[in-house]
Amino acid sequence: MQTRHIYIKIEEIPNYSPVAPDDAEHHKHRLDCMRNMGHEDAIIPEAEVDRRTLNALVYREYLDGAYTILKDDPLIAADANEPRVERRIPGAVIYTQPGERLYVHVLNGDIEPHSLHVHGLHYGIDSDGSWPFGVQEYEGPNRSDAICPSEQWCYIFDAREDTIGCWPFHDHHMHIEEVVKRGLFGGIIVRDPHCEKVDLEVPIFFHRLTANVDIAEAAFDSDTLNPGDTFAHVFNEEGTFEYYCRFHPMQGRVRVTAAGPLTATINILDTPARFELDDVTVGVGAEVTWNHAGNQPHTVTERAGAGLESYAINGRTFVGNTPTIVAESGKRIRWYVFNLDMSMVWHNFHLHGQRWRWGTEWVDTRSLGPAESFVADTIVPPVILEPLPLDCCCKPRENGQNRPGHEPVHGAEEEENQHGGRAQPARIGAAHAAGARAHTHSHPSRLESEASDPSSHSGGQHEHSHEHSGECDSAYPDRRRECKRYQLQGDFLIHCHVEMHMMEGMAAILRATQEVELSEEEVKRICYQLPNVRMHECPEVGHHPCGGDGEDSWELLDSSPIFTVHGALLHTGHVLLFSGAAERNYPLEGRIWDPTTRQIMPGVITLPEDFFCSGHIFLPDGRLLVVGGDTNGAGHTNNRCFIFTPDTTNPDAGAFSATASMAHARWYPTAVSLSDGRVLAFSGGHPIAAEAEVYDGTSWAPVTGADRTFEELYPGLHLLPSGEIFYTRAGWAGATGTQTAYLTLTGPTSGNWTDYGQEQFYDRQEGMSLLTIDTTASPERTRLYIFGGGVSGPATARNNATAEVIEFSGGVGGSSWQRIADMNVGRTNVNAVALPTGRILIIGGHSNGQKWSPTPVLPVETYNPDTDEWTPGASLNFPRQYHSVCILLPDGRILAAGGVAPGTADPDQHTLELYSPGYLSLGARPVISTAPPSVTYGTTFSVETPQAANIGSVALIAPISVTHHTDAGQRYIKLPINSRTATTLETAAPANGNIAPPGFYMLFVVNNQGVPSEARFVAIS
């Protein structure tokens, strides 16, 4: 018997995410090409990447006994997504054959004891590895079933004829499922020397990975509940408590109020897995009981200890990260399939377009219990059937022309295939085999004879006689001159057919490639677009294909426990929402909304003052400055100021702290950032403060010479690139007239006002203004827009469907207000949001009257500055009028919250909804692989993206901090693309703080189809 020494080391892979396993190769990952819920744009949000992260543990093979030379063979040679071996799960697959004895030396590099247990091979009790039935070394504590940290054990296994097949191995010390869910498993494959040659060997592991979870942070956790178990918890304080199951994608909520019932019962059910009821309200001191009435293990775990469990194939989750196995049609694959999910959950292995012999039947699906495995041979299916199906009844293509993008392969005659010969195109009419063979470790005999299946072969391309001669057959040389060659690609799913498991990411792809020769007439008669070979990326399809590309939509979310009047996007990616008492004695508290889970976090943000109708703006370090507010109630003053500091270690938390007070009380004020990071406060009452004050991070000072009594409150004010603060007349209360103006700062605490041009329309009360800057122009081009508004002037002098723009090139001289195309509907109390594409989204408002108007406008519309056109969009589910906020998120969606609904029982909206612009259904999104976390004014910097060649624009957008349709900080800044490579763009930071006041910005790249990436936060200073 031959002998072989194998060196295995148990090692940790720190910070491993199954959707982003390798930061060095992340351009290949962070995708969900099936566009499951929350990934409609095919991109895994950054926060989800983090929530799936764990410290993985693997068996890793080395080539030497000193464990210095890592065996770096790929697990699957044809897997386009496989990460490098240092970031791979499983870490090792061992191949052997009958007649070989394996000496497997296992070094434990972890801090806990482990072992190695192998299925199927011959071994003695010294090599079983199952605690506590192993053996102990003569000297020392080391055992075969408990290898101590930094110690070794040599396991001895014999491979014989009756072990032919594939066999899993895993730790069998203690807490087996727990360590296997970290990746501590692998496989031994005993090849059958009598079997025919195959083109690809593909080991596939179905398993789950559990993210790092700090259960100590959870307010309650049931641990594992089995069928029939119960769990109870007493809630002794008010609040909203989110909980979930650590094993399955289930979640629920318990709301605790002062006067709710004192008991509640929730059932845990399966098929589908769910909590029923999933949203209950109880009183303080209530006991909630969960009854396990299902048939799978579950937990009831409070969200604070949350991590996401991943349904994985080969250590990765969701198509685009999981294996993409690239192979030519007709090649033979030998699959080694393992189920390393050690729980009570079964899986099955299903192949699209392929089948294998199982006993006397042909099958395409087989179930596997925990630690089961089997072998199956299949043939890579054709991308298109042969003979070519030219007799379908599809509608003929207009003018008989093929669609764009289906160009023939040029120079394909010169290409060589993987065997070194000329690439041979498939002949029209050739029939690919549908068959294959299989065996398992329970059936060790050799595979069925080749002669038993006429479609068999010995590793090469299947060749068959013609059933029907196509026009490109070699027998017709004259016709061949008219034929062209096409490289085709078809993605066939590999997945567990338990739908929940597949939708949770347990799916992969077999990417078949096929070269065909087609005549022009045949191409015309094919009733679909030829699936040409493309780069490694998700299919470019709309999320709503039957509605057409560019379809937008609103999604109704769970309601907020608080009324929202103020909203701000934090640089943690989460959204701070608050209102204050709102003249209704609401609790003084705010909430954090998580865009990843689309949930309000359970923690309460205490407001130290009544912030209702305050002003707010971000400071350079990302903290939020809140100035003024309401004086309703004893003890409240509205000259006080506070700063909200997000908790960067826990983005669901943060706290307010007091800073210096202003000299003037300010209710409905506007705060404006300056180029040096200071903040100006204007207006507000009561009485209305004419004097402006400036905050330097420590104290407030008056700005002499800058007094101005604005007719309205919340005046529309914006810092221009030339340094002036421009007044647009948008705002609150009567703003009759058309005179605009700008403030010039003549010193750190001095300035003066200059009246400027007249707007086209009288009265912009309750309209909204915003700023866009294009730094690709020289000098930079600045546009100030104002949309809608107008409720108090004479009808003949106002029109709330109108919009205007004033454009500056460099300084403020020589410009005037110009009317642009009217909106489709008149709007007052309108929300305007600058999009990553440079277009402007208009949301909500009402068509007539002031804040309590009963005529809401529900459809959104988008303005295109390049064409001066408006495009109507999807309708809101609820009115968003007075007191509503709309916030652009890093993923390009928009959160809408708050607003009044006159005439209803509760006129203050607690509903939340999420808008997906049409650009999210235009195809695959570009991805920013890396971007600097901070840049300095005027410097160039690089943005890495695998789609660099197709990027049309780069933009910075300031995070929204909005209330009452007023946000002096919102600005869109288009950046230049100075140069590019295949994977990198070089751009330039804004020249100074007048263009971009210091602070955090969202960085987007937008492709030539108008689809933006998910943003990265970049600090500008």
From TrEMBL:
The keyword Transcription regulation does not apply. One of its GO terms (molecular function) is oxidoreductase activity. The keyword Metal-binding applies. Pfam families: Cu-oxidase_2, Cu-oxidase_3, Glyoxal_oxid_N, GO-like_E_set. Signal peptide: none annotated. Residues 399-412, 460-475 have a biased composition (Basic and acidic residues). InterPro entries: Cu-oxidase-like_N (IPR011707), Cu-oxidase_C (IPR011706), Cu_oxidase_CS (IPR033138), Cu_oxidase_Cu_BS (IPR002355), Cupredoxin (IPR008972), Gal_Oxase/kelch_b-propeller (IPR011043), Gal_Oxidase_central_sf (IPR037293), Glyoxal_oxidase_N (IPR009880). Keywords: Capsid protein, Cell cycle, Cell division, Metal-binding, Oxidoreductase, Signal, Virion. SMART domains: Kelch. Residues 925-1020 form the Galactose oxidase-like Early set domain. Residues 426-437 have a biased composition (Low complexity). It comes from the Bacteria. Residues 399-475 are annotated as: Disordered. Residues 85-193, 307-356 form the Plastocyanin-like domain. Residues 594-899 form the Glyoxal oxidase N-terminal domain. GO terms for biological process: cell division. This is Multicopper oxidase with three cupredoxin domains (Includes cell division protein FtsP and spore coat protein CotA).
